[in-house]
Amino acid sequence: SMLEDMIGCYSWEKSPFIEVVNSVCCNPMTEVNNDNGPRDPKPQVIYRCMKCRRIVAAEENVVYHKPGAGETCFKWKKRDGNSLNSKKPECSSIFVEPMKWMQSVQEGHVEEKLQCMGCNTRLGSFNWAGMQCNCGAWVNPAFQLHKSRIDECHI
């Protein structure tokens, strides 16, 4: 697609990590429409660098994961088992497919920071061996973009 050409996506099929990804990642849940009526097309979501507005990912590049148990997954943060705040935290990052703009991925690093190609702002980091989301879920391989550094735009 035109958007894919703009932001540059690797094909997972060509990646040696496809088996790992398929065994770990969950498919996004699809909406069920029971009324058979006309349906509004869902607006497409793109993610932009907050500083320079460059498009860094689209919704179809997001790798979804099943939320973990939150703070209880992090033994070093856990104070006691009966925490008052038992609500699961919202993920503070999104995880995406490896993208062509990710210079350090192209250079062959196993783990590194991810910087915007337009302005060099740090957007997140990646690790082929995986990372833990703040919700507690393990994502493998992990290409993490911090929500505080990107804008979610509906087009």
UniProtKB/TrEMBL annotation:
GO terms for molecular function: protein tyrosine/serine/threonine phosphatase activity. It comes from the Eukaryota. Belongs to the protein-tyrosine phosphatase family. Non-receptor class dual specificity subfamily. This is Dual specificity protein phosphatase 12.
